[in-house]
Amino acid sequence: MKNTIKAKPLSDAQLMVLQIVKKPYSEQDLEDLRELLLGFNSRKMQQHLDETIAQKRYNTADFQNMLAGHMRKTH
């Protein structure tokens, strides 16, 4: 039996990036693009984190308790 991997279709974002980078780029250009994409992803994750913190109304004391392990449940 042959081991096959089913390819998932590319997302719109992946297709857009492929369309943009279809021409050859220098190593510096690729590094700049990498930094740009990492920065974008970082900003999106921070935005999601900020929204979650606001939604759950976490405060500094909550985070201190989490760090200290006081919110852990025993099994």
Tally of DSSP β-strands: 0
Quote the beta fraction. Answer: under 5%
- The averaged pLDDT comes out at 88
Overall geometry comes to elongated
Oligomer: single chain
Distance between the termini: 43 Å
SSE arrangement, N to C: HHH
Q: How much helix, percentage-wise, in residues? A: 55-70%
Question: Biggest β-sheet: count, sense, barrel?
Answer: none
Q: What does this protein structure show overall?
A:
The chain is an all-alpha fold. The chain has a domain at 28-75. The protein is 64% helix and 0% strand. It has 3 helices and no strands. It starts with 11 loop residues before the first helix and ends in a 7-residue tail after the last helix.
List the helices and strands and how they pair.
Layout: H1 12-20, H2 27-56, H3 60-68
Short key terms for the protein model shown above:
mainly alpha, 0% strand, elongated, 75 residues
